[in-house]
Design a protein that fits this description.
87 residues; mainly beta; OB fold (Dihydrolipoamide Acetyltransferase, E2P); 5-stranded mixed barrel; 5 strands; 53% strand; globular
Length: 87
């Protein structure tokens, strides 16, 4: 894939694979509060475009920001880092 400019990328876990060509990916974030100096765990879900429906629920994937595919889908699947073998 051609890199143009600085696009955000992150690693998350697929939490839903029910929609066609769309995955819900949960990205965890750990940061320290500025004032109270306490470690906080944040979580955010992104709608991710998966053209070939190759990722399944529980897979660890790398995603990257892209052009909008729909109202909420603005991320694209880059690669599968780790397959879920639980099934």
């Amino acid at each position: 894939m051609i890199e143009r400019g600085k696009r955000k990328s992150c690693v998350g876990v697929v939490v839903s694979d029910k929609n066609n060509k769309t995955r819900q990916v949960s990205v965890d974030r750990i940061y320290r509060h500025r004032l109270y100096d306490r470690v906080i765990r944040g979580k955010r879900k992104f709608a991710v475009h998966d053209e070939n429906n190759i990722s399944k629920m529980g897979d660890t994937v790398k995603i990257m920001e892209s052009r909008p595919f729909s109202k909420t889908k603005k991320w694209v699947l880059i690669k599968i880092m780790d397959k879920n073998e639980a099934l």
